[in-house]
Structures
1.
Amino acid sequence: MNKEEIFAQVERRKQDMIDDICTMVQIDSRRGEPQEKKPFGIGPANALEKALEICRREGLPTKNVDGYMGYGSFGDSEEYIGIIGHVDVVEVGDGWIDPPFSAAIHDGRIWGRGALDDKGPLFAAMYGMLALKDLGIQPKTAIHIIFGTNEETGMEDMHYFLKHEEKPLVGFTPDNKFPAIYGERGRAVIEVWGDEQKVIEFANEYFMNANVNGDRLGIAVKDEHFGEMKIRNKLLLHAKDKMGIRFSLSYPTCDMDKIMQQIQIKAVDLEVRLVSNSPVVLHHKNSWLVKTMQKAYEEATDTSAQPTTTTGGTYAHVCDSIIPYGPSFPGQNGIAHQPNEWVNIDDLVACAKIYAWTLYKLCTEQIPENPLEEGKL
């Protein structure tokens, strides 16, 4: 099978893909109050059930994993390739021209909350998979299209899924950028608490007009994969009898214990708390999965590119057998989470072709025993 045949099948089902994406965008899937078998509320549950309904319409066996996630299956093997995206969305906010759940189409774009993050790309990946199914290709390794419902507000869905289902052998999440991504920065939230005057002095000395790399705090670490430390989202906090300052770190490979110790050295007579921490995820950029997906991207786009890393936190931060892969192309600016979110229809078709060709390469080749772990840095 050559890529032109697969791309032609994607084109034949272009309108079906657009229709299904619009159907999904029209579902308000913001997090709500939990109910039985609907752990994140009615909206995400409705979106999950609609996604599974579409899978069944396409002849895919489905499973709803207790309302946390669900999937459709193509192929019979126990081990599988996972396409993992999410159907939940962030809050809407103000400033919309078209209603946020209208899925309006104009200017060659689909407009609406979730059009780009992540319903459009997830269904582009699904239609890439369906192109293989429609052409009668029999995968050596099954493919599961997996729909999450809590990516935006904690990824509890992914943690639950991994406790109750086998994780994919390999796979990707279409929730970041191209080309192949071999690492995600670490993320931490830190708070410093104490006497109001001391906290103000601390904030003025170490954050006022300071570089964002944390050099004043003595934490300006960097590496060859992610570059420099970045301090973000500084916020003063008030309690009954004390004050605090919260800030987040987007960090490269480093020893977080030493980072905390260094901050405590600077925060004299103050309490330093590590509120949350999501460590760096870093795979070898020459691993089998990264190289295979990178080559597929280059073949599908007739371009040359190098694997890269990302600042964004995706399902790949929780599921260590997948990597981020699309949908944004090099040079495109992110507009997810903004008012008037949109996705370009031509880009969706291009993504579907890339995903189809990548899945073809993954599901028809022999996947090695350690496709990502071997050679992990």
2.
Amino acid sequence: LTTKIEGATNALEVKIDNFKTEITADIHLIEDTLQHQQQQMTAMKNEIERNNLSKEIVMAGIPRLQDENLYNYFNSICDFFEYGKEHRPFIYAKRFDTRKSGDVRNNTSSSNVLIEFCFRHAKNDFLAKYFKKLKLNNALNLQHLGFTSSNRVFIDENLTKTNYIIKREARKLKKIGALEEVRVRDGAVFVKFPNNNNEIPISSKSQLPPALNNDGPTGNNRHSNTNN
């Protein structure tokens, strides 16, 4: 009788253990599914926000003045970018006091200026002219806006919070050589990995490589000025 009881007990314990294993596996599967769905929802929300910001840029480094006219500043920039008066894009401009999401330098004596274009291609053309001047070592500065100072004026796309964080982390990785290039196009972040010519869109920090030591992957302390 004792042997039968022990056998039944052991069999019951095996069934219980198997049941626990199955339940644990099911719970892990549910957790993985929920996590995947949450990631998809977060990515979708970020994509919707990116699309909403697709016509916007942020300008930093312009001191705030009483009774200032932001549209006059914009027209002065258009003159510097060699727009014809009949080809100047239509925009809406305003100051905002809190740094939202654009990856541009700020100044303690100024707040960023938000510019919204009527058309996205007009925004892209405006940014292209800005970067063209940079490549020609003729960067936009306050003198072009009528100030006496020659401090730089920085312009960049208005990024979502998620994409701003991705860009910030990607630039850190580029400085240590973990990434070859970091670019922003239409509010999305693209990177190139070393020895790879393909641009890869990055929608999550988890897609970035882990941070390396200061010597970088090749033993060289590589630094790159990726700021606009």
3.
Amino acid sequence: MEGFIRGAATLIGSVAKGTGKAARGALGAAQDALDAAQSVERPADFGPAWGRSAPLAADADAPESLSILCGTWNLMGQLPSSHEALSEWLLAGCGPSEAPDVLALGLQELVRLHPAHCVTKAGGDFEREDEFDARVLQALSPRWKYVKVRSVGMIGLYLACFVKEGLEPHVYDVDADRVRTSTEGPLAGKKGAVAVSFAVRGSSFCFVNVHLPSGQERAEDRSAALRQIMGEAFQGLNLLGGERPRKLGFRRETRQTMADHSGAFVLGDFNFRLEISPSELPAKVGALSPQDCSPVLRAFDPSLTGEVDPALAHFAEGEVDFPPTYKYKVGTDSFDDARVPAWTDRIFYRGRGTALLHYGAHPGLRHSSDHRPVSGLFR
């Protein structure tokens, strides 16, 4: 497998330079082979504790009301800085004596989106993912202890789901998936989604972490990618009718849609862009404060004025009353002149009786990335 990966990575070098249809086809075949390979998965994610497909008898008739914290953060190719107080993000909206029952944390760009990583990191970067998990658990301890239910990675995308210690015996029907969107051509996997679903005490949940195409001019590509993600995640067939093969930890059976879950959550870097150019802004971007620019810019973001992508038509979002989450100069509260500020990082949800308790960005976590992390607390 190592020799195969090295060969595929060499092919990527030529693809990235725009050479030959044959090289692009070979790269696609290499990615398909890796996607079917068991060796790119993390064996520790598939312990016997998660093998049950039905609830315990005591849980089946009495679903419990659980609190769920969803978080999303584009990390710009690195782990969170040691200067960050992660508890601000992980416990957002909770009282001083409270913590979420379920944590679903989605990262984008945990590694740089270098073309070679489309093969060498096809299943994620295990070392960085483990380090991130350790930092999360450390930030919550010793008061709160959690057990990881499942995680899944794809190049820079990573989704990790945890439950409070004591809930793990009640977890069942665990599944995961990844969707490599076709909008990135031969570098499929650079954008797309990773997803996890599971049930706890009679309630089922689905979490999808997305990273959509970037660029002012790529609105149609973002819509196409989101449509593919929502149509293929956890399903046995792709949108063209082709089979999506099963593999270790990925059932890919068309037996349940997102709408069938007690709660479904789509979070991540949607790369929504404002319909305005830097020259139309009332001041140079770098001179705008996050608070001052928000009222001016909101009118230019279709996603904030009711024009929700059709793929999210049945999902809700909390009020976006926080400043733009992108693009900042790292370590500061100043916007980068290279981009028009935008609300790229979002969380959407649906579910019978699912209530949003808190939704916000975290400006204090400024030392790691040009994005601000976002969290949503639900019950």
4.
Amino acid sequence: MIIVYCIAQLSVNLFARLLTIWSRKPPIEEPFEVRIEESNLTPCLRSESPELPIGFKLSKEQLSMCKKLCQGRYGTVMEAQLSDQGTRQKVAVRVLKSSSGDKVLKASLEMVQTMAYLGQHLNLVNILGAVTKGLRNGELLVVVEYCQHGTLLNFLRRNKKNFIEQLSSNPLLTTSDDGPSCSTARPGGKVITYIDLLSWSKQIASAMSFLESYNVVHGHLALENVLLCDKKVVKIDKVGLLPAMTSGHSYVGVGEDFYPYKWLALECFSEREFTSKSDVWSFGVLLWELFTLGETPYAAMPNKDLYRKLDEGYRLDMPDNAFPEIHDMMRMCWYNRPYLRPTFQKLEEGLTAMLPKEITRVSEAD
């Protein structure tokens, strides 16, 4: 009887495993359609002619373009001066190409409206307004905060030789205009400490917790989409740049530019669904980027092999510059089942607890 029972149990387990495999969707191929969980902002995004809050509509006459900062697939980012009520402010302006098409234009409008209704957060690249007068001709100018020091990824790569393994309180630790740093700066770059890495991790988790509270999905969280400002404040960029964060909307991703493969959660490959929990997975990869000082994850692994390896249980190793608590946090972000992953609120709390108390007090005072 025992043998019969064991055989029956094995048969049931085998059948369940086969059923899981048969029902699984094939890994992402290009182009692909993606479903994104419904946002709490759905009602204001479904308008045929989206409205912006008072003060967000700007005119071209208020902008004085200075120089081109970068060129993208759908437009250009310009440095500019914004004149508003007698004051002038340095800003960045995203100029959408008129040839981008209706789908991209609609997505960009929804992004502007989403961020306008969300309100501002210290660790997001906040939208200051938009020029919508040329919409009929496919023209849209989005005015955002100017971040002086570019991407955090490039900053880390430029200054990785100046990394100091400093975590505990130290007489050399000072607070300057650039934020907590070491007073014995090495020539040729900015000093980076463990405290900086933890502080940046906590700031990013704080911004993502804010988005999570509104059920807003970022969708492509990676270190290259985090910008660095004065006082070592970091801001997450490109929130909602991909079309629509509401159920029923879909978009086509061509190539790997829309969603970087190596930051995707397992369910993004298999189920093609993007949620706050898939953002948590991406945050784990971002932590790995931070504590490797800007290395590329899975650098030696071809994209075509990544899903299979992750599904088999492969995960990134602990970076040399990290410590076990941080690697444990990364691995929690990479649980196969999304519901087992922590919330961004829990991640923020955990990172805050790792920061020295004097740094936490300085941050709160700022």
